[in-house]
């Protein structure tokens, strides 16, 4: 591998980790509306309590909170795994850009789905509620992200099994 290729790959992995940490940060931020939805008020001691209806549901905010954190950790982990397996070139680009897309698509899914009566599970009506713009945005983002996730994981699984078949290599 050429030195410039290695530097470009390292930069792409680092960029992917940065995006993963941003997705994780937004997942942490979703904990605030979760707490406010559970309390049915914005309360930040020692400030006065502000009674307000938080959009979405506590279930939806819990999903955005936990889902964002887990997606961020997954993106960072997959970037580290790609580096450990020495994935390069187009395969590395598919993995890294795919995981970046996954993170942002899933973030949109969680937040928009929480505002959708149908939970973003379809562009149409579901047993959970009517379809609307928020539901369509959530569904299309989540579906798009899922495709990129599956591709990235398949590339890494293939690389892992290929690495396992290779006689021992230096760590």
User: Structural class, from secondary structure content?
Assistant: mainly alpha
| Quaternary structure of the protein | single chain
Q: Could you report the average pLDDT, rounded to the nearest whole number?
A: 93
How much of the polypeptide forms β-strand, as a percent range? Answer: under 5%
Q: Please estimate the helix content.
A: over 70%
Residue windows where pLDDT falls under 50 for at least 5 positions: none
Rg, rounded, reads: 19 Å
Can you count the helices?
5
- Characterize the overall form: elongated
Distance between the termini: 16 Å
Q: Tell me about the biggest sheet? A: none
Number of beta strands: 0
Describe the structure using short key phrases.
mainly alpha; single chain; 171 residues
Structural description of this entry:
With 171 residues, this protein is mainly α. The chain contains five helices and no strands. Helix 2 packs antiparallel against helix 3.
Brief description of this entry?
The chain is an all-alpha fold and 171 residues long.
Q: Which helices and strands, and how do they pair?
A:
Layout: H1 3-29, H2 31-39, H3 58-84, H4 89-115, H5 133-165
Helix pairs in contact: 1-3, 1-4, 2-3, 3-4, 4-5
């Amino acid at each position: 591998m050429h030195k410039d290729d290695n530097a470009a790959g390292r930069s792409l992995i680092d960029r992917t980790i940065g995006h993963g940490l941003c997705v994780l940060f937004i997942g942490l931020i979703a904990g605030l509306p979760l707490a406010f939805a559970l309390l049915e008020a914005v309360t930040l001691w020692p400030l006065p309590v502000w009674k307000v209806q938080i959009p979405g549901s506590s279930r939806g905010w819990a999903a955005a909170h936990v889902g964002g954190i887990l997606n961020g950790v997954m993106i960072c982990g997959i970037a580290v795994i790609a580096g450990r397996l020495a994935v390069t070139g187009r395969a590395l680009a598919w993995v890294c850009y795919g995981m970046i897309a996954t993170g942002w698509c899933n973030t949109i899914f969680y937040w928009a789905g929480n505002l959708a009566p149908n939970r973003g599970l379809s562009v149409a009506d579901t047993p959970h509620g009517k379809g609307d713009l928020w539901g369509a945005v959530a569904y299309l983002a989540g579906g798009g992200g899922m495709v990129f996730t599956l591709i990235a994981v398949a590339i890494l699984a293939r690389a892992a099994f290929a690495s396992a078949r290779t006689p021992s290599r230096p760590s």
